[in-house]
Design goal:
- The protein is built from one helix and nine strands, in the order ββαβββββββ.
- By secondary structure, the protein is of the alpha+beta class.
- The protein has one domain: 3-Layer(aba) Sandwich (Rossmann fold), CATH 3.40.50.
- The strands form two sheets. A five-stranded mixed sheet has the order 1-2-3-6-7. A four-stranded antiparallel sheet has the order 4-5-8-9, with no helix packed on it.
Length: about 90
């Protein structure tokens, strides 16, 4: 299932072993950055901050082909724009 938050598509129940390349291709082909959330992880967005919760990392597939892992139990600062600009806070 794909939902939207700001300029990002959101995919839940993500399994990297069988879907990473497909999501990357979708992101590049459709010019949409994608936040992929696996089972056991969650994402809280407040203002310009994003907090990953649960026991697994969240993967961000940028439309330019960049792939980033966001570790759990950390807060990241980001801007909801075409390219994610993040800095680790805690």
């Amino acid at each position: 299932m794909v939902s939207r938050v700001g300029n990002y598509s959101i995919i839940t129940h993500f399994h990297d072993d069988d879907g990473g390349e497909k999501v990357k291709e979708y992101s590049e082909k459709n010019s949409h950055s994608v936040i992929a959330i696996p089972e056991g992880a969650g994402l809280i967005i407040e203002s310009d901050n994003m907090r990953v919760i649960g026991g697994k990392a969240i993967t961000i597939f940028e439309k330019n082909g960049t792939v980033m892992e966001m570790e759990p139990d950390r807060i990241y600062n980001f801007l909801m724009c075409d390219t994610i600009k993040m800095s680790y806070i805690t």
